[in-house]
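Researcher: Structure for this, please.
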Amino acid sequence: MLNGLKCMKIEPWKEEELKEIAITGYEKLGIKISDDFASKMAIESLTSSQLCNLYA
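Model: Predicted structure, token format:
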């Protein structure tokens, strides 16, 4: 513990989880995307759910 702060290890998002963000986001807009497109978005988001949401 440093100065009252506790460090936490946060695991990066997995590709499958990020793909689900993309697929769900587009479905809510009434748009169907391919699995390949969702995979590409997941890979390009660099394990960041925030970036994946921006792309979707």
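Researcher: Any notable elements?
Model: The chain is about 55% helix and 0% strand. Residues 16 and 42 are 8 Å apart (CA to CA).
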